[in-house]
Design a protein that fits this description.
Elements: E1 5-11, E2 14-15, E3 23-25, E4 32-34, E5 45-53, E6 58-66
Antiparallel strand pairs: 1-2, 1-5, 3-4, 5-6
Length: 70
């Protein structure tokens, strides 16, 4: 069994290294968490592209994170 690794590869359609966004992604588990307070008035939603690799094959999943009522 190959070990999966997860990466945030795009944010709102722009290639990203993940350093400039308010989310943290655990590369081993794929868990996404908020790394800083979110400002709904400034940004209502984020579209993240998560790339998953098992060292041989890449798969892509688009994850849309919407904020409301906080």
């Amino acid at each position: 069994n190959a070990r999966l690794q997860y990466f945030i590869s795009r944010v709102d359609g722009v290639v990203s290294d993940g350093a400039d966004i308010p989310f943290r992604l655990d590369r081993a588990s794929g868990n996404i968490s908020v790394s800083e307070p979110l400002d709904y008035e400034a940004v209502q939603d984020y579209d993240l592209t998560i790339t998953v690799s098992d060292s041989a094959v890449l798969s892509v999943a688009v994850v849309s994170c919407g904020l409301s009522g906080f």
